[in-house]
């Protein structure tokens, strides 16, 4: 049995919320299953809420307040915790981090930027500074923290299977100085060696592929229909209409077929990393 993971109440508002939930549940002598009994939610969701990993749905907050006789504590603080979870994320993206944590599979298509789950701090900072040049340094830093918090995804044993397809120009036209770009590519290569992680490169020569119009993320879940997410410069959309999600999945499968194999993709990423590392050393 793996050791119990107690939430650190000081880590964040959601962590405090989760720690208080666990304390009150255990004080009442209830198991996770006993507490969710009579709700429309399951014990795995409640466990992850207690660890501060997922947000509390309002219907569950109301249910828990009644079962634990908390005087409305969880319903009353629902909005504050929800806002804390959104900090650093634009409103249209706000649901994605929790969806990534609860997904069975995540499939990313990255035509213009390395996906957030794969980014190093330097890459995330560069994007935050470039896309919101009018923002204060504090706002930029908040966005970077939020982006890096999503990378906690890789620390969970029960994380989703990840599949990313990157366009080759992301390797050839660096967003960062050589040393930092090498570190970014080495980071991706290291993640590729993890289980349940596949990254492929779509060659630049593949110009007439099935997803020429922009970024795409597809998520599947153990107990809910799959979703697709598309994003523009200042907007994004979660798509749950089944026929449309099916079309996006078909397009992604065609793109996957046009990409290099995982082995060849890893070799290309490592070769690019060596090139940037050599360039950095020559500039010292």
From TrEMBL:
The protein depicted here goes by the name DUF5753 domain-containing protein
Highest taxon of the lineage? Bacteria
Q: Which CDD domains match?
A: HTH_XRE
What Gene Ontology molecular-function terms does this entry list? DNA binding
DUF5753 domain residues: 94-271
Q: Which InterPro entries match?
A: Cro/C1-type_HTH (IPR001387), DUF5753 (IPR043917), Lambda_DNA-bd_dom_sf (IPR010982)
